[in-house]
Write a structure and sequence with these properties.
The chain is an alpha/beta fold and about 250 residues long. The protein contains 10 helices and 10 strands. It folds into 2 domains: about 170 residues, Rossmann fold; about 60 residues, no CATH class. The structure holds adenosine-5'-triphosphate. Adenosine-5'-triphosphate binds next to strand 2 and helix 1.
Length: about 250
């Protein structure tokens, strides 16, 4: 039997009359790197929030690392982590204090050494002792990624992980995440609007539109299926409902 990091079945989320996620089902094998794609308002952040146990689904089931997320999320939460530009770290605490507080919350052993490891790996030294509220957007993103890696998660959920990074730092960060994934065997699910990033990092993509899963597959397979040269063009076809015109 295949070992899944994520098994999602019939997942929906309604906010009053707004249907943010509408009957989404997918599985992600352990060790895969998968992208959640979709235009603004497609339901990516809502889906990630449900996978993290931050939002309760209106219906459907989620199994994370084999555990039912609604009934047993406390069993599985120590084994995953996330970063999101929409979740701020406490502003008055320095980056080091933030990492230390979160490290204690996650019960990270040898915490000082782990923060030191991440400081070196993610090159945080220059701003580690500054208040997070005073950091640039890109520096905050790096601290948020360090926070997400503190407990060496088996499942890493990343919402636009490189959105505020300059192209050089973004490229380096992608390399770091790929190395982490290879060394640890972790599974990564990332929401991104950067198609080049997705083509470089991801084994598979899940495409959401209006809360529904409208397509999925390996980036190269989708590019071939749509008769396009890049994933960016596939994305535009899906966003603009051009699939029928491009398919034989
Ligand atoms: N708490 C809420 N109350 C009402 N509607 C909500 C709430 N959260 C999300 N929505 C709506 O649900 C839909 C999906 O939003 P979501 O944030 O998941 O989209 P997204 O794919 O992450 O978009 P983006 O790329 O713009 O970040 C949107 O129409 C949004 O307005």
């Amino acid at each position: 039997m295949q070992d899944f990091a994520l098994q999602v079945d019939g997942l929906s989320k309604h906010f009053g009359s707004v249907v943010a996620v509408d009957g989404v089902s997918f599985t992600i094998a352990r060790g895969a790197t998968v992208a959640l794609l979709g235009g603004n308002g497609a339901g990516k952040t809502t889906t990630l929030s449900m996978l993290l146990g931050l939002l309760l689904p209106s219906s459907g089931t989620i199994r994370v690392l084999g555990e039912d997320m609604v009934r047993h999320r406390y069993r599985v939460l120590p084994r995953l982590n996330f970063s999101s530009p929409y979740v701020d770290l406490p502003h008055r605490l320095s980056a080091r204090e933030n990492l230390t507080v979160y490290g204690h919350l996650y019960g990270v052993p040898h915490l000082k050494a782990r923060v030191g490891e991440l400081e070196r790996a993610l090159e945080l030294s220059e701003f580690l002792d500054r208040p997070v509220g005073k950091l640039s957007a890109g520096q905050k993103t790096r601290v948020a990624l360090a926070k997400a890696l503190l407990n060496r998660p088996e499942l890493l959920l990343l919402d636009e992980p490189t959105a505020s990074l300059d192209p050089d730092t973004a490229d380096w960060m992608r390399g770091y995440l790929r190395d982490y994934q290879r060394a640890s065997g972790a599974t990564i699910l990332l929401a991104s609007h950067n198609m080049t990033e997705v083509e470089r990092m991801c084994d598979d993509v899940l495409v959401l539109k209006g809360g529904r899963l409208v397509d999925q597959g390996a980036p190269s397979a989708l590019v071939g299926e749509y008769g396009r040269a890049t994933l960016e063009e596939v994305f535009l076809d899906i966003a603009r409902d051009r699939r029928a015109e491009t398919m034989p």
